[in-house]
Amino acid sequence: CSRPQKVCLCPFLPMHPLKVSICLYIIQHPAEESRVLRTVPLLAACLPPDKCKILVGRRFSEDRYPELATVCRNPNTLILYPGAEATNLEEVAVMSSSPSVMIIIDGTWSQAKDIFYKNSLFRLPKQVQLKTNISSQYVIRTQPTNTCLSTLECAAVALTIMEKNKIIQETILRPLQALCSFQLQHGAQIHHSKEHLLKNGLYDKPMPKNKRKLRRMELLVNNVKI
């Protein structure tokens, strides 16, 4: 896990990489590389190297990333990104039986949105989303809403659905749970979602002056999906 001995997570990783038929392509925003508590390295440690490929960048052209372009044009490729045009992954899992590739964007919500909309390649695969009420266990990082999941959690849920194997989710979440436990024991605080803080009058930061950001906060308080 490449962490100090006192907070080593290796005992919580699977002894052998999980056997999965789906290959994950993690499109990682460069800012995530410098985060100490990022979850993608834990995800990669749970899977075979050829089943978890990480590409770092903001812009992905067909000329610079021919392999990715080929993947995006493959009819069996899915991209996990919520939206009005996205199909629930559970429905896709029922209809599809062939192994596929899944693309997941790793970054903050604004970074992920920027990557998705400014790279035409990512609108070629079938767009899917998770329909789940699972609360994030990544409690040492603030999420927009209670049901926003980290990249590792999204991958764990998605692989469990597509592979029809609940053990996958349990195995991938184990090092994340240990990570959060270690951090809380060493002084970290539980981070409630922005949605929770706003609804309970606990949001102590200055309200944004930008009207669009203010509107997003109003939607969070009023339980409107954004």
TrEMBL record:
Query: Might you name a Gene Ontology BP term for this protein?
Result: tRNA processing
UniProt keywords, alphabetically: S-adenosyl-L-methionine, Transferase, tRNA processing
Name of the top EC class for this enzyme:
transferase
Q: Which reaction does it catalyse?
A: a uridine in tRNA + S-adenosyl-L-methionine = a 3-[(3S)-3-amino-3-carboxypropyl]uridine in tRNA + S-methyl-5'-thioadenosine + H(+)
What EC number(s) has UniProt assigned to this enzyme? Answer: 2.5.1.25
**SMART domains (UniProt xref):** DTW
Per the record, the similarity remark reads:
Belongs to the TDD superfamily. DTWD2 family.
This chain belongs to the protein called tRNA-uridine aminocarboxypropyltransferase
